[in-house]
């Protein structure tokens, strides 16, 4: 008799859901059955993340140190532990929030854009004076320490090396981009980058509150928070030991779904075609995109302003994508700034090409090397889940038979189609959680 191959923890979890599915009341709709199944399983049952993935960053870490930690562990985000919290602090007081790799980079570039505009509006010979003026204005408008803005302004001046004036019609990305590739190398070697603390950017771009799950919370709660409530990751806390026991991400959930292929409960849902589920949610007319010759900083600025995690880079007609840039790709501006130094400006197209060459030279595996991953509206949700999981990507673009863009599907979109929120489900669940700042999503 042939021995059955061992099942993954995710597949075993799928079998548990299968047992629950089989005993659901027959009058329930498939959607109600799924909700009931997920409500019956505690998050303590979710497979644990690798130890290297369950880390935190101390609030007194510098931005440079935080970037190094996240890059080393290949993490997109991590909880921020408040070093000033007392020993007997509860978990909600022990952590300040969750900071994303991209949030650090976008905040830093945002400060640099402002300083770049002010510096290039003057002259290199007046750099220090202009830097102090920029400090006063930026401190008043952004609430940032003047000393920090002076540092940014001087970095921008050093990177500029120009006396050309920039008119009011220029944007921050255009101003920074016109400084050339050396701008990022200068920025990452600056005292500003090395001395600004993680706690100094609390509540800024892509900074989420420390919204944690307890082990007794259910899968349904977790899935709703990762979809409807737009959380990218959720720490699971051990109240007894006041520690983070696990971290559950959107990617981990989609991987679990991929491991459940073949099970009745999954196939009942997974066989549906995208258009039958109302996907893509973001269609062609709503799709935000950037043209290949635009400055790469414009890409990240659009993501920040629109609250999205990635967008396609399109050729001249605007219909076909030549690549995808995700918010996490901003890391390449900070971890490998030297690769741009020979460029007078860094366009979206240049960025894609340079980073791909860098990754190939370093023999690194990255979604950046995949180009644009696509599907059609007639594909099933199962096929899309398998592709997203196999390629380790967060979005897939929907195209027509001629390869023209028709929309995009994200991990959050998929999870949102798996469950629905019952009336008054969360009650007082969010009480005591610090409200998410208006600009924290990106």
From TrEMBL:
**Gene3D superfamilies, A to Z:** CBS-domain
Q: State the name under which the record lists this protein.
A: CBS domain-containing protein
Q: What is the lineage of its organism?
A: Eukaryota, Viridiplantae, Streptophyta, Embryophyta, Tracheophyta
Q: Is the keyword Repeat in the record?
A: yes
- Alphabetical keyword list: CBS domain, Repeat
Pfam families per UniProt: CBS
Residues forming the CBS domain are 282-341, 368-426
Look up the domain of life of the source: Eukaryota
Carries keyword Secreted? no
InterPro entries reported for this sequence: AMPK_gamma/SDS23_families, CBS_dom, CBS_dom_sf
